[in-house]
Amino acid sequence: MRVGRERQHEELRDWVRGGARGSGGHLIVEGEPGSGRTALVREALAEAAALGSRVRYGAADAFTAELPLRAALDCLHPEGPGRAAVVALLREAREAAQPGGALLAAMDLLVRGVEEWCAPRRPLLLVLDDLHWADPASLLLWQRLARAVDRLPLLLAATRRPLPRRPEVEQLCAELGAAPRGRTVRLEPLTGAESAELLRGMLGAAPGPRLREAAGQAGGNPRLLRDLATQWSRLIEITGVAGGDGGRDAAEAATVAELTLPEQELPEPPTSLPRGIGYLSRPAYTTLRHAALLGPAFTPRELALVQARPAREVLAELEEPLLAGLLEDTGERLRFRQPALRRALYAELPRAARAALHQDAARALAEAGHDPERTAEQLLAGGALDRWAVHWLADSAQSLIAAAPGAAAELLERAVAQADCGDRDALEGSLADAALMLRRPESVELLTTLHGRATDPGHRAALAFKLVSALMIQGDMARSLAVTEDALAEQVPSSTLRLRLKACRVLALADLHCPAQAHTLAAAVVAEAARLGDPLCGAEAHHAMAFALFHLGRGRESLRHVAEGIACARRSPEVNDMRLLLLANQAEAHLRFDEPETVAAALQEARELALSTRSTGRLVVTEARLAEFHYRLGDWDAALAGVARADGLPVSDGWLPVVMHGLRALVLGHRDEREAAQAELALLPPDAFAVPAARRYSGHVLLARALLAERAGCPADAVRELLPALADSPDEAGAYERPWVLSEIVRVALDSGDTATARAAVAACGRAAAALPEYPGPALALLRCRGLFAQDPQLLAQALERAERGGWPLVLGHAWEDLAVARAWHGDLAAARAALTRAVAAYEDLGARWDTARADARLRSLGVRRGSRSARRRPASGWEALTPAELKVALLVAQGRSNPEIAGALFLSTRTVQTHVSHILAKLQVRSRAAVAAQAAARRSAPEPVRGPGSEPVRGPGP
In the predicted model, what is the mean pLDDT of residues 850-867? Predict the structure, then answer.
């Protein structure tokens, strides 16, 4: 398979064809072991032979590197009289006092043989594999032959890897690469997309999100990826229908290969894997194995501390792994490029030795003053805590909780189990802090016990604040308000703690439907925080004000306070948890305003911070927000991957299961995977909506249930599933997706003949839009409601314009479908067909098979068909040739964004973005990013007109 090597294959093919026409040249193929060097040159050999060229192949190896001309002889004369003549001269050279003459004679004989082969102008291709092992005499002969390619129909191809690094090989390759007829082909690691394509070819099915992520363990090395896939073969399940009329490509597109276990539960990599880096020197290998103890990434100083050696010695021994591409420099740390190799090196060490080395490393890092989370990582891997570790943990608990609450909680649980009575109270208090930071449910019980036991006013007030926070996380706002009022009625010695309790009171009142009172109190809290100048107080005060304003429907004002709170939180690492909360709120708010770039930036920062601090409680919220964002963007595979990551984390927020199961079921439903969607909804507990916050995020569950009912041919049941959105109670009225759910009620109710319910939904959507005038979503939903109810093409065309501005693909597909139906009702069948085609195009890009079927069925009943039902074929060039992912990248390129900026905005790797950019340039037939921007500007200034109702033109969607 040539996945990821298509360009290099074509380059070699052109080179071989030139040689077949009599043009000489020499070429070096460079790449790490397993990158496909040999396969590439063997394809060149086969191509040359098919074109009538004479071919010869040989491979050097480490065992014959000292035998003069052995590599060249194996290539030119693997057997026969020619070999015997050269061997005789080599034997003479070995026995002679001065062997130079006989050795030169042997080389001359070989060169004359090559010239004779080429004399009839018959092209000759010589391939020498593993040039890095070739003996010096063979290298000299290769150099002589390379100087003859300008007068002979001779092609020379050699392969090499980065190590071993021999001066004579480096000199030869530099000379050949710089020569007029020389070229160098480098085989880089596969990108994520290329790795997925390689797996698809191996398995006959597209890899699912979990398998694609696990493929990263190979670091883009094709052979290692094949080995891992083979090892995982019994853990890979292929689902879907692998049949039909679409041929092999369609069958593979309809099936998915997915791991049945999460990545962290996969078996250890093959034990033979470290043998593949046996070319490293022994000191370099040992140092690399010790580096594996420090995790996926490390600094040379950390490794020097652990090994108790000077940093310069460690750096010298790391040079080989860096040159070989086993490590890569990320700027701040060195990182194992192939996580599977790190795991295999780590597994080589005996378990008892690993534990002792981890404990020694922890002490070394702590005594050197390193960040506590690095010490904690080593202690976690080192097994039971000794007395030094317990004392270190007691001293460092608060800084460790702020930086890495997940690691802190796990260590504190071990320490509490081992500690004596004198240390247990302090350790339990720290454990409660960590549980609170991680949003674990046990924090309420722990804090209630500790609060009841406390007598010191300051300590009691601090525990009350933590208990209030834990109760809020559980959604028990009434009890949290009661505890807050009781605490404020007692003595609170700390002015900062008193302010934070006041901020909690604001949050509770706003959530308990008293936003005006909360806003009044919040103004005083913000003013007091400004006087105190404490970063944590400032962040919490602005958060409280933002929350009150949000409940008052003043979204832009709320966002300004969110931004001010984030600015306060960035002033101190001890405010990281509040910063994570504010970033999640910022992302959600900007999502409501249809501002995806700001959403992406906030979620990127939040995810990186949550990962770096091991804040699993905040990380699961961030993953859920990120999954929602990808769903809205139309990247449903990424949405499902985000939900899968969130599934692997402990959840205490009552609304999170509703979001995650609802989102997954909704994607599966749109893809027409009904049984899987039903199974997902069945995982929701009976009391899933008992918490008010869960009811606010119920939209996905309601839409998924209605979709399945409609798919089963029961539109009346679909309406019943959506009816909770009609309630005007405070909890339901504040539901995130409510306006869109109301617009779906109108559509499905009208289809089932329930005009009364449809009319009620239009009225409810009008009230929702009036209460949320700042947000574009409710206004769009209201236009859709009114347009559907009246079957008014003009209103629906206005809804389409708003959908285009929002840029969410599924919403845009619905808008085109609605317009198609209205046009058909009004007898404009040609315009209806055009709108239907646009709707189906949007659905097919998403993989929304049910939506495509529904749209076809609705329009077919009105006399409108798309014509051929064969799969749409994307043009080969131009903007229409771009895939949805390429289109997103192209638009950001047009804005002048760099590849790293685009990667951050779209949550892709820089290498993936580079691949997309290459495809974009090729499809648009341009050579520069500036040309992409120019074409995008031209498309915006001259959009494609789309006929609207009557003679009114409607702006076509831009690029």
Answer: 90
Structure tokens at 901: 């900026």
pLDDT tens by residue, 371-398:
898 999 999 998 889 889 988 998 898 8
Query: If you write DSSP's letter for every residue of 391-460 in order, what string do you get?
Result: HHHHHHHHHHHHH-HHHHHHHHHHHHHH--HHHHHHHHHHHHHHHHHTT-THHHHHHHHHHHH--SHHHH
What is the number of other CB atoms lying within 10 angstroms of the CB of residue 869?
Answer: 9
Alpha helical stretches, state H, 77-221 = 81-95, 100-118, 136-146, 167-178, 192-203, 209-214
Q: How confident is the model at residue 285 (pLDDT cuts 50, 70, 90)?
A: very high
Weakest-pLDDT range from 284-293, 599-608, 638-647, 737-746? 638-647
- In degrees, rounded to 5, the angle at the alpha carbon of residue 954 between the alpha carbons of residues 938 and 592 is 85
122: left (phi over 0), alpha (psi -120 to 50) or beta: beta
Least trusted range by pLDDT, from 258-262, 392-396, 654-658: 654-658
SS3 882: coil
Q: Which two tokens stand for residue 799?
A: 């809804």
Do the Cβ atoms of 73 and 143 come closer than 8 Å? no
By the 8 A CB rule, do 37 and 44 touch? no
367, with CB counted inside 10 A (0-12, 13-18, 19+), is exposed
Cis bond upstream, residue 164 (ω within 30): yes
Q: Across residues 817-825, what is the average pLDDT?
A: 94
Q: Is the Cβ–Cβ distance between 105 and 89 less than 8 Å?
A: yes
Q: Kindly report the backbone phi and psi dihedral angles of residue 487, in degrees, each rounded to the nearest multiple of 5, phi listed first.
A: -65, -40
Helix (H) / strand (E) containing 183: strand 182-186
The helix-helix angle for 776-790 and 793-806 (nearest 10°) equals 150
Structure tokens at 951: 């003679």
C-alpha–C-alpha distance, residues 134 and 115, integer Å = 22
How is the beta sheet containing 334-336 ordered, strand by strand? 297-298, 334-336, 327-329
897-906 pLDDT, tens per residue? 877 778 766 6
How far from 419 is each of 383, 398, 428, 905, CA to CA, in Å?
15, 18, 10, 47
% of the chain beyond a pLDDT of 90? 51
Residues 6 or more apart in contact with residue 479 via CB below 8 angstroms = 471
Question: What would the two tokens of residue 352 be?
Answer: 């008892």
Query: Per-residue pLDDT tens for 434-443?
Result: 877 776 777 7
Q: Order across the sheet with 25-30: list the strands.
A: 54-59, 124-129, 154-160, 25-30, 182-186
Stretch 824-842: mean pLDDT: 92
CA 218 to chain centre: 16
DSSP secondary structure letter of residue 600: H
Number of helices and strands in the chain (H, E): 48, 13
The one-letter code for the residue type at 184 is T
* Residue found by looking up tokens 């060097």 in the block: 37
Q: What are phi and psi of 546, to 5 degrees?
A: -60, -40
For residue 68, give both structure tokens: 């003069």
Q: What is the pLDDT of residues 703-731, one digit of tens each?
A: 999 999 999 999 999 999 999 999 876 65
Residue 884 has pLDDT above 50, yes or no: yes
Cβ–Cβ < 8 Å for 87, 63: no
**Cβ pair 606, 587 in contact under 8 A:** yes
Separation in Å, CA 713 to CA 706, 743, 857: 11, 19, 12
What is the model's pLDDT at position 435?
A: 78
Let me know: does 327 contact 334? Beta carbons within 8 Å.
yes
Mean pLDDT throughout 798-803?
Answer: 92
Mean pLDDT of the 645-656 span: 72
pTM of the predicted model, to two decimals? Answer: 0.60
Cα gap 143→129, rounded to integer Å = 15
- Sheet strand arrangement including 236-240: 206-207, 255-259, 236-240
Band of the pLDDT at 528, cuts 50, 70, 90?
Answer: very high
